[in-house]
Amino acid sequence: MKKYPSVRRLPKFEYIAPKTLKEAVDFLSKHKKAAVPLAGGTDLLLNMKRRAVVPQYLVALKNIPDLDTIAYTEGQGLRIGALTTIHAIETSLEVKSTYPILSQAAATLGSIQIRNLGTVGGNVCSALPSADMVPSLVALGAQVKIINGAGEKLVPLEDFITNVGKTVLAVDELVAELQVPPLPSHGGGTYIKYAQRGAKALGICNVAAWIAFAQDICTEVKICLGAVGQTPIRAVAAESVLRKNPFTPATVKAAAQKASEEAQPRSSPLRGSAEYRKTTIGVLTERALLSSRAQIGS
Amino acid sequence: MLLQFPWLYEISLYNKKGVPLTGSMRTYKIPTALDVPKLKNFHILVHDPMGPFGAKGAGETCTTAIMAAIRNAIEDAVGIRLCEPPFTPEKVFEALKAKKEGQK
Questions:
Q1: Which residues in chain A are contacts of B90 at CB distance < 8 A?
Q2: A175 has which bridge partners?
Q3: What are the CA-CA distances from residue A28 to residues A11, A63, A265 (Å)?
Q4: First CA to last CA distance, chain B
Q5: How far is B48 from chain A (nearest CA, A)?
Q6: pTM confidence score
Q7: Among A68, A115, A162, B79, which has the highest number of CB atoms less than 10 A from its own CB?
Q8: Cα torsion for A106, A112, A117, A122, to the nearest 10°?
Q9: Which phi-psi region, left, alpha or beta, contains residue A224 (left: φ > 0; alpha: ψ -120 to 50)?
């Protein structure tokens, strides 16, 4: 009989804990695919137990200073170190007062134990379609700061994830930071996760919406759909319905309809039929937009 | 003991080869503290001649009515008759759609 694919004990590996980013990048570029960076490990260690990845070296990043800081400055916006735990984002006063949508999204991820270990860098690099942090970060226009041997570069988060579990990150590169640009003050954002139950479940469909206003006209709008495609999807057509237009129940409905058309969910016995998920994402988009609008006031 | 939620959440699914799809706590979702509403217990005290000193088992006996109550509540609210638990939102969605199409 074929062996049932089960979770087993961790395979053997060597644990490396560099003290600087440069050391870590050097080690990664020397050993290429044999070395895998370890952040919170909530995805990686499970994948190793399933033998989906069997690295020779685990390069732990936690000894590198300043990778887990959250800093907000007026001109530069929010900078979140890649090793910042989800729990730290959820509870950070700085995040709550500037980008409440991020702490809202963080609060929906997994359970308290997972949030204490899991990091925002890990959530982004695991590149799962249902990643809870990604839609809100995309809706806020976040950029990923990548460090490699040659230096550093910035990549928009929406271009960073390319497929299920795939990113533009090369084997010898590391994500150091997520940068959220400063936003106009008349803005509001909402993240809605729809899952089978209140916690510890992957979303059936997720949506993050961010809108800004000037004199009742929608000046900026970003909508990102999660768990309804191979990557989180920017609902560009839905956005263009609202952008530079008045925010009325009719335009919101039209935008939600577009978002529903843009979603490309698969039918899954566990997470529902494609049609159900498409309809639901439309409803959630409408709710997210209305709730974002309500945050701004008149 | 958890009363009603087996009828809303838990489901055993198998793929074409008969391999269980909900074979672990990751896929076989049981409700969390966030999902369970406040429960109230009401006891109807009766003497059971079969039990010692008139005592009666007080475990699963009371769970069976819950499924029917939820099913009837859904019918009362939106007029659809679901026959296959668990009564997930998706099943309600499908039934509502079928109802709408039937009316056309």
A1: 272-273, 276
A2: A146
A3: 20, 16, 35
A4: 44
A5: 39
A6: 0.91
A7: A115
A8: -30
A9: beta
